Amino acid sequence: xNKIELREVIKSDLxxxxxxxxxxxxxxxxxxxxxTLNEALSSQSIYFKAYHQNEFIGVTGIAIKTPFLAExxxxxxxxxxxxxxxGLAISLAVExxxxxxxxxxxxxxxxxxxxxxxxxxxxxxxxIEGFHPDHEAPGFDEYSLGKIL
Length: 149
What we know:
Blueprint: E1 4-9, H1 14-27, H2 37-42, E2 46-52, E3 55-64, E4 69-77, H3 86-100, E5 105-111, H4 115-123, E6 127-132, E7 142-148
Parallel strand pairs: 4-5
Antiparallel strand pairs: 1-2, 2-3, 3-4, 5-7, 6-7
């Protein structure tokens, strides 16, 4: 299995946050409301850069919903590292991060056409909890998935 190290990007690290935003926006090119530095700075989410063998390979994050519930967000593998099962490895690493922080349940929302990430989450034991047509805007359907840790 690919060992992933998650390094938290603190809010005062503007260069690090800009890297996170850049990678996320490069993947979600059709998102109706692009992820911005202001959003990253103002949210209660915690963002991470993901490293494999000391190489920066992607990003992920945790949105704290309640003391019990965390949502994994913005999980993206950099283009040059796709196809190497690193999305699964990042997903497992952020789930473990949630567990270590004391959350009892983790959830996520995934665009309905992102079959790769939906498959990854289902293999990790997540269950589909809902379908949200036109969630962010017309044509942007999402699934919500959850897992008890």
